[in-house]
Each structure stands twice: as structure tokens, then as C-alpha cells.
Design goal:
The complex is a heterodimer of chains A (190) and B (350). Chain A has 190 residues and is mainly α. Chain A has helices at 2-18, 27-47, 51-65, 69-80, 91-108, 115-128, 136-148, 158-167, 171-185. Chain B is α+β, with helices and mostly antiparallel strands. Chain B has 14 helices and eleven strands. In chain B, the strands form three sheets. A five-stranded antiparallel sheet of chain B has the order 2-3-9-6-7. A four-stranded antiparallel sheet of chain B has the order 1-11-4-8, with no helix packed on it. The two termini of chain B are 28 Å apart. The chains are: A mainly alpha (190), B alpha+beta (350).
Chain lengths: 190, 350
């Protein structure tokens, strides 16, 4: 009788583990080890400019461990840095990469550790790169949110000054100010 | 309590292979978790996750040893020597506790030699659920207790700048107030009571509402301090407190419940998993059989003391670490004592 009850108990908790509502002691170690292995794969794909793996592994690390740094790096690299105008870059290819970066960040925004950084990357991509016109509105929303947050905890206070200045302008002038500021803020070489 | 009863247990726990495997495993875990180049920022959490394998394996080993002792007739021999039946089960309770303490103490050593990744941020940020609690009033629910010193980071959109004489601010009913400035993140520190409950409540004052302030809910985060390497002994001691009551449970199931040792150890691990469960998004459970089971199990979890803070390990462990209240800790350890006392009775024959 007790044996049956214990088996049922173990089975119940095992099934609850399927929805990740219950983690058996020690299982976190396996997840951590998998995260470690994925971090190595991510590093290798970044070194070899393998953007396809970078996207896939960056998102997988986030979904597995909740660490969003790899995903933010992948989005910035694939959607912004790799889509800078250069000879041989196809417009459709660049637009697809930018769209992926913008949409993957939008999809995970509520669960990212650093949503401000996600908004910055989205805004930089939409304002400074070739993207679908349907993303224009999202670009302005992302830019406004990023400036409203003062860039997040790790940016200098000057980001917030742009937002305060924008509040004194009409909506159209404010949008132009935010777009202009994002263009100025693009790192040299991009 | 005679050492002669404890020593066979300890010798069995720490066979030659265990004495080599544990230090090597701890060293390997430190190398994996605290890699200075590619190590994760919360390397300490990763190390704790690896270290938690030791108590889990020890629990299974304990179950297997109980099975082996029964097969070898050692229990019968002890019962004949000690008809009152108290000393043998006492040894079976104390020996795993001693082995657990010694093993976790050993786990505290390797990280002292590891180089932590440079530039680790002192704080970590985690998503938090925000809901409206009235007009201009909000509630942030972290889904459980928070460490002391936690701060809520909030971003707001404004329709217009504040006019002269206006003082936009966030306020709480206990008189706390934080000024709001356009273009900056508002930092709302959790009071001791809010941190204990894991629920923060605040309102937006009328001046801020007049300026058309809107909370960007998807960008609200809770900021908590990261434990430092010097905190590792304390974190490992919490793991000891978390795992210890599971050993008397195994003993009880084997001695009084006539269960197999390994099966009892698995059941105890399942109970540990339930006590440590930290569901992130319960409302998002799928409406499948697995989702129903998940919900049913979460109902069961409410019957146990909240000891998530003792078992916190892995990514984001800082959010729960050290949040276990004294009452919950006393209840959890009390449960262990009750289980141990219940196991002290003579074993029922199979």
C-alpha cells in the first residue's frame, strides 16, 4: 500500500516537473550545466560570425536559464551591427535580420532582465536601419520608452535630458527629436 | 550516543571513492561556475546549484544504505543489542546530518581559490507582476518574499513636463514618498514588511496624474543585491537546513512504512522539490493534464512552510535567497524533528 502511494507521489511530482512548476533537487545543476555548454556555443558562434547559431543559441539560453544578456547581444549583433550598409549586403536579408531582432525582443520584453537595453536596441535598429514600414510605430514607442527611463540604470543622466526637452515640444517635433538623437548616438563605424 | 554506532554509517557514506569524488566534484563545479572569462554573472548561484547535487546524492545513498543494512541483517543485530530501539535510529539520524554538514563544509573551500569574473554587477534585476489596485494605485507582486534592501525600478511616460509648484511623486500609505522626474527611473525601496510579503504597493499623487504620467508596466523590475563570495558558507548552511529534514523522512518511511530505501529517498526528494518550488507564472499553466497536475501540486505546496529561501540556487537565486522567515524555518526543522521522533519506534517487520 505504502509502496503504491510513494510511487504515485513520485509520479505526480515528476509530472509536475514537466510544467517546470516543481524542480527536483539537483535538476537545477543539469540546467546550469546545459547553460554553461550553450554559453560556449554562443561564444564560438560570435567569434565565427555565425549569426544563425547566434540567434538560435541566444534565445535558447534565455528560455532555459532566464539569462537575457546573450539574447540582447545576439539581437544587437544580428539586427543592428550586421545590417550596417556595406557592399554585398542584400536589402531583403538585412530587413529579415532586423525584423527578427526587433520582434524577438518585443516578444520577450516582459521577462528580460534589462528591458531598457532591449528598447534601445529596438529603437536603434528601426531608426537607423532598413526595416519594414510596419515597424515605424514600434520604433517610436521603443525610443520614447528608452528615453523616458533615462536609458536605464547604467546610462548617463543626459539621456533623460533629451526626454525632458521633448516634453516641451509638439508630438511631431518630439518624434523628430528622439529620432535625431538616436542617429547621433549610433557608435562610430556603424 | 556511542561513536561505535555512528562510525559504520560514516564509513559507509564516505567510502574511498566518495572522499575523492566530492573534492574533485566541488573543484570542477567551482571551475564551471566561476570561470573568469565566460562564467555567468551569478556564478555563486551556479555553484550552489552544482553543490545541491551532493545532498541529493547523499539522500539516495542513505536510502540505498538502509536497504543494504536490512539485507545484511545489521538492523536485526542492532535491535538485539539495543532492545529499547533508540540508539540505532538515533545514529541513523545523526550520521547523515554529520555527513551532510561535512560535505557542504568541504564545498565551501574550492570557490575561495577561483577568480570571479571581473565587472560583476552588485545587483540583479528580475521581472515583477504589476497590477492596478485602484485609481493611480499599483501593486507589484514578486510571487514570494524578497531580500531586504530590494528596490522597485519604475519607468513612466509623461504627457507634459511638471508645471511650477507641482511636485509629482509616488507615495505609500505609511508616509513614504519618492519624487518623480521625467526621463529618470523611479526607485521605490521595499519596506521591511513589503519585502517579507513580496508585495509592494504605491500610488501616484495628483500632481503626477495631472502631468499625464503613465506607468510602463512591462519595464518594471525588482532590483536585489547579489550575495558575495564571502556569503557562501551561509548559503551552504541554508542548504543544510533545507535538506536535513528529508533524511528523517526516509528513515521513517523505511522503518515504519516498510518501504524500500531508494523509493523512500526518491519520495523525500520529491517532497524537497515541492518545498523548494518557485513557480514563476502560475496563471500561465497550460490547460492540459500536465497543467492540471501542476496546479494541484501547487495547492499541496501551500501546506508546507515556505522554505524557498533555503534552497535557492541557480540563475536568479538572489531573488529568494535568505527570504525564509524564522517561523517557516522553525516549522521545517520541527517537521524534521517530528519525523525523526516518529522513526525512533521499532521497525515494523516486512
Amino acid at each position: 500500500m505504502i509502496r503504491t502511494l510513494l510511487l504515485a507521489w513520485i509520479g505526480l511530482l515528476g509530472l509536475a516537473g514537466v510544467t517546470r512548476q516543481v524542480d527536483w533537487p539537483g535538476l537545477e545543476a543539469l540546467r546550469t550545466l546545459q547553460g554553461w555548454w550553450l554559453a560556449r556555443q554562443f561564444d564560438a558562434s560570435a567569434l565565427h560570425d555565425d549569426d544563425t547559431t547566434l540567434r538560435r543559441v541566444g534565445e535558447r539560453i534565455f528560455l532555459l536559464t532566464g539569462d537575457s544578456k546573450a539574447l540582447l547581444f545576439a539581437a544587437d549583433r544580428v539586427g543592428f551591427q550586421a545590417t550596417a550598409p556595406r557592399p554585398g549586403l542584400h536589402g531583403a536579408e538585412a530587413r529579415e535580420a532586423s525584423r527578427w531582432a526587433v520582434e524577438v525582443l518585443e516578444g520577450h520584453l516582459e521577462h528580460l532582465e534589462d528591458p531598457w537595453e532591449a528598447r534601445r536596441i529596438q529603437a536603434f535598429i528601426i531608426v537607423n536601419r532598413q526595416t519594414a514600414p510596419s515597424l515605424e510605430h514600434l520604433g517610436l514607442t521603443a525610443a520614447s520608452a528608452w528615453f523616458a527611463a533615462g536609458g536605464g540604470p547604467s546610462w548617463p543622466m543626459t539621456i533623460g535630458e533629451v526626454y525632458r526637452l521633448g516634453l516641451t515640444l509638439t508630438p511631431a517635433e518630439r518624434a523628430a527629436l528622439l529620432r535625431g538623437s538616436l542617429r547621433i548616438l549610433v557608435p562610430e563605424g556603424d | 550516543m556511542s561513536l561505535s554506532l555512528l562510525l559504520p554509517w560514516l564509513r559507509a557514506f564516505a567510502g574511498r571513492r566518495a572522499w575523492i569524488a566530492l573534492p574533485v566534484g566541488a573543484l570542477l563545479a567551482a571551475l564551471l561556475a566561476l570561470d573568469p572569462v565566460l562564467g555567468p554573472e551569478d556564478g555563486l548561484g551556479s555553484y550552489l546549484a552544482y553543490a545541491a547535487l551532493f545532498p541529493a546524492v547523499l539522500l539516495l545513498r542513505f536510502g540505498a544504505l538502509l536497504d543494504a543494512r536490512r539485507r545484511d541483517g545489521l538492523e536485526l543485530e542492532e535491535a538485539l543489542r539495543d532492545p529499547a530501539g533508540r540508539r540505532a535510529p538515533l545514529a541513523a539520524v545523526l550520521a547523515p546530518a554529520a555527513a551532510l554538514a561535512a560535505g557542504l563544509a568541504l564545498c565551501a573551500i574550492p570557490p575561495t581559490f577561483a577568480n570571479l569574473p571581473p565587472g560583476i554587477a552588485e545587483t540583479a534585476r528580475h521581472p515583477v507582476r504589476i497590477s492596478a489596485a485602484g485609481e493611480g494605485e499599483f501593486r507589484a507582486d514578486a510571487g514570494g518574499g524578497l531580500p531586504r534592501g530590494s528596490t522597485l525600478l519604475l519607468a513612466f511616460e509623461w504627457e507634459r513636463p511638471p508645471q511650477e509648484g507641482e511636485q509629482p511623486a509616488l507615495f505609500a500609505t505609511d508616509g513614504r514618498e519618492v519624487a518623480l522626474v521625467p526621463g529618470t527611473l523611479a526607485r521605490w525601496p521595499a519596506s521591511a514588511n513589503e519585502a517579507r510579503r513580496g508585495v509592494l504597493e504605491w500610488g501616484i499623487n495628483s500632481d503626477a496624474r495631472a502631468a499625464g504620467v503613465t506607468l510602463l508596466r512591462s519595464m518594471a523590475r525588482i532590483e536585489v543585491g547579489r550575495p558575495r563570495r564571502g556569503d557562501l558558507p551561509r548559503l551552504l548552511a541554508r542548504q543544510f537546513l533545507f535538506f536535513w529534514p528529508l533524511f528523517p523522512l526516509v528513515l521513517l518511511l523505511v522503518r515504519r512504512g516498510r518501504s524500500g530505501g531508494l523509493l523512500a529517498a526518491c519520495a523525500a526528494l520529491a517532497l524537497g522539490g515541492l518545498a523548494a518550488a518557485d513557480p514563476r507564472d502560475p496563471p500561465d499553466l497550460p490547460s492540459s493534464p500536465a497543467g492540471w497536475i501542476g496546479r494541484a501540486v501547487l495547492e499541496l505546496k501551500d501546506l508546507l512552510p515556505d522554505v524557498r529561501g533555503l534552497a535557492a540556487a541557480g540563475r536568479g537565486f538572489e531573488l529568494r535567497s535568505g527570504t525564509t522567515s524564522t517561523a517557516a524555518l522553525a516549522a521545517w526543522l520541527g517537521l524534521g524533528v517530528v519525523l525523526a521522533l516518529a522513526a525512533f519506534g521499532r521497525r515494523r517487520p516486512r
